[in-house]
Amino acid sequence: MKLTGILIVVAVIISACHFVEAGNFRAGASKIDGTLPIGAPLAGYNHGDRRVPNWPLFQMTPFTSWMTPSQGIMNPTWIKALVVDSGNERVCFVSLDLMCADSSLALLAWAFASMQGFSIPMEKVTFSGSHTHSGPGGWVSQFAIQITPTMDLFVPQLQQQLARSIARAMVEAEKDLQPALVGIGMGILTNVTHNRRSGISPYVNSTTIDPNVGVLKIDKADGTPLATLWNFAVHGVCWGPDNMYYSSDIMGGANDNIEAQGGGIALFVNGDAGDISPNGDACAGKPDYAGGHTIANTVMQVRQNTTAVSSGEMFAGSTIVEMGQTLTNWTMARELNCTSGGPFDICSLCEKLDCTMDLRGGYAFVEEQPRFTAVRFNISGVNTLFVSIPGEAIVELGWQIRNDSLDLGFDQTFLFGYTNNYLMYFTTPNEYVLGGYEANLTLWGIDTAETIRGGCYKAAIQVAPPQYPRRFKPSSSIRNPNKASRIDDVDRA
């Protein structure tokens, strides 16, 4: 009897040892075709062939009002989900071939998924739009987003169809959970994008980009690729307003190449791409984008060089930030970058009269309570932060968020732009006062970017490595002294 008891204890110990060696990571992934009906509007441009001839007069169709209907499908609208479980934490990353994500679509999708048994709380799910400018529109409920950049007027049927497809992807990914190997790597890519504010801003040139390529590598326990989540900053504008077909643009082309090269399901999450567009050469050969091949090759090289392990730590947190009503501060100096001259000398006149239009809007106009989500992976002692940004951060803001994360003890950071909400652009004070497209769509005044930066910080400190203090550190001054006089003249929220 004693011998039998000893053997049982030994068997239990051996079993436990094998359990530890098997690791605690599990993962599941899914890919769903979420293409909306042909005839729905395409989101991203409010001019050219996309707009009805006699705008702003409506030209009504079943899905469009002042936008022209889509005419066909170049690529399906893919919806992809990745669930990762570390034993003590479970998160879900959703990647959408859409211009953006917003809270109403996300909440509806999560509700549909929860009714089907999806177990992950809303605050531990990220919904990221790829920012293609040829994805479906008509599904956003906030009026400002319906008109600029154009989505067209809200059609509940389109939103519900999208939400049900997203929910299906979430449910299938969680059901697919299986023992997994997880690794995170970073690479550099400099030859496919440029800064489009070059020539407007003295602070940037065409090569002022975010070159970071982040890769979350997920393999099955036997080493077979399951999924590749990749993070890079690029606008989806290879196709212009003359394109009337659904397209996932250059990032979709990269996804197709990653999957063809054996990377499993490829999920793209955009970064700080507010002022970053693809080079002309990158769009060459579209829809077989030359840059799509370059990006995919870089992602797969990083994937190959990244070691995936069976055990590690994962922590998730989130916070909601109150933005308040918008403060557009539209002036001639910022709109046309002029303080004198102009048609009928309008710039000189407005400089003297202080022509300013501060458009105040409520929640029906644009979202005011974005959710910031942070996830920390600790793999082999390397702490990686994933942090969401609810719109279009320019690259300067991206650098600031990365530097803040270094101060908190993170070794590397993935910036999840266009995630959870869409509050348009976030230009830093230096860029805000210069005006231009991105600055004019920065809707909460000169300190908008610092509010967004603070939201990222507040989410990040919830999951920061424990050896670092968990307190909010006020933003240091980031304003160029050469612009101080102009900054002081700009109204603040």
The largest sheet is: 8 strands, mixed
Radius of gyration: 23 Å
The pLDDT mean sits at 86
DSSP helix count?
14
The end-to-end distance, rounded to whole angstroms, is: 79 Å
Number of domain modules? 2
**Quaternary status of these chains?**
single chain
Task: Report strand %.
Answer: 15-25%
Which regions contain 5 or more consecutive residues with pLDDT less than 50? 1-22, 342-346, 470-493
Helix content: 25-40%
What's the number of extended β-strand segments? 22
**Taking strands numbered 1, 2, ... along the chain, how are they ordered across the largest sheet?**
6-5-4-1-8-10-11-13
Alpha-beta content class: alpha/beta
Shape: globular
Keywords:
8-stranded mixed β-sheet, 14 helices, disordered N terminus, globular, 22 strands, alpha/beta, 4-stranded mixed β-sheet, single chain
Quick recap:
This protein is α/β, with parallel strands linked by helices and 493 residues long.
Question: Can you describe what's shown?
Answer:
The chain is of the alpha/beta class. It folds into 2 domains: 433 residues, no CATH class; 34 residues, no CATH class. The protein has 14 helices and 22 strands. Strands 6-5-4-1-8-10-11-13 form an 8-stranded mixed sheet, sandwiched between helices. Strands 15-18-19-21 form a 4-stranded mixed sheet, covered by helices on one side. A two-stranded antiparallel ribbon has the order 2-7. The N terminus and C terminus are likely disordered.
